[in-house]
Specification:
This protein is mainly alpha-helical. The protein is built from six helices and three strands, in the order βααββαααα. It has a three-stranded antiparallel beta sheet. It is globular, with a radius of gyration of 16 Å.
Length: 115
């Protein structure tokens, strides 16, 4: 299914709900279950999502409703190295480079710890 996501910086929880066909309480629940999905709370104490979170909501929805994954199965699928590599390919180059550098840094810090 194709979704038309407007080209804007922030989306309210209501907008994401309508765009993705998921009720707001489900989005709040998914925020608790999927660490990758985080909204931004502004001064008005309202949840705002960026375009990457909207895409992530669509991915989670597809895993749960179309592919038949459980919450824990979808969480594992999203955190698998293969999925992370696919997500890096779809990110802008600068963001993908940053994520890759952070992963390298965490590996280096992990290897420098005493065994």
């Amino acid at each position: 299914m194709l979704y038309s996501i407007p080209d804007k910086r922030y989306f309210t929880i209501g907008e994401v709900s309508k765009l993705c066909g998921v009720k707001p309480h489900v989005l709040r629940y998914w925020e608790q279950e999927f660490p990758e999905l985080q909204s931004i709370d502004r001064r008005s104490r309202r949840r705002y999502y960026q375009k990457r979170e909207v895409l992530l909501v669509l991915k989670i929805k597809g895993l749960l409703r179309e592919d038949g994954f459980t919450i824990s199965g979808a969480r594992s699928k999203l955190s698998s190295p293969v999925t992370k590599a696919k997500n890096l390919d779809s990110m802008p180059a600068s963001l993908a480079d940053t994520v890759e550098l952070e992963e390298i840094l965490s590996i280096l810090h992990g290897s420098s710890k005493p065994v």
